[in-house]
């Protein structure tokens, strides 16, 4: 189990229009200019947008893998330790974060093409 930084970055290629923007100690992940995640290579952690309910559930279920990052409106961002998660679960969380952020038409087109 565990996902490397390189494996995580490769996952992003499976989602349309993802842009990586360097931000100092992190890389911001955006779709059409809106952020849905962050990568901190040095600590091998990822911050992902989620619903507040999902954030609470993930942290309660596995606090050794997930921790709350912050909340903003109806969203609860969660930090994921890459060493503690498998690729399928991480891709599901990344896709959910992307879907919460991307325009509806882009999400629909992506889901239709799966």
TrEMBL record:
Domain of life: Bacteria
Species for this entry: Planomonospora parontospora subsp. parontospora
Pfam families per the UniProt record, alphabetical: YjbR
Lineage: Bacteria, Bacillati, Actinomycetota, Actinomycetes, Streptosporangiales
InterPro entries per UniProt: YjbR-like_sf, YjbR/MT2646/Rv2570-like
Name of the protein in its database record: MmcQ/YjbR family DNA-binding protein
């Amino acid at each position: 189990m565990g996902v490397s930084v390189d494996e995580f970055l490769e996952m992003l290629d499976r989602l349309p229009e993802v842009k990586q923007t360097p931000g100092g100690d992190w890389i911001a992940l955006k779709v059409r200019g809106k952020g849905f995640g962050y990568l901190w290579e040095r600590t091998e952690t990822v911050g992902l947008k989620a619903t507040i309910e999902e954030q609470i559930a993930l942290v309660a279920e596995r606090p050794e893998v997930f921790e709350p990052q912050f909340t903003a409106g109806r969203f609860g961002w969660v930090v994921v330790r890459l060493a503690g998660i498998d690729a399928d679960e991480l891709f599901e969380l990344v896709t959910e974060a992307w879907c919460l952020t991307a325009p509806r038409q882009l999400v629909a087109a992506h889901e239709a093409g799966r």
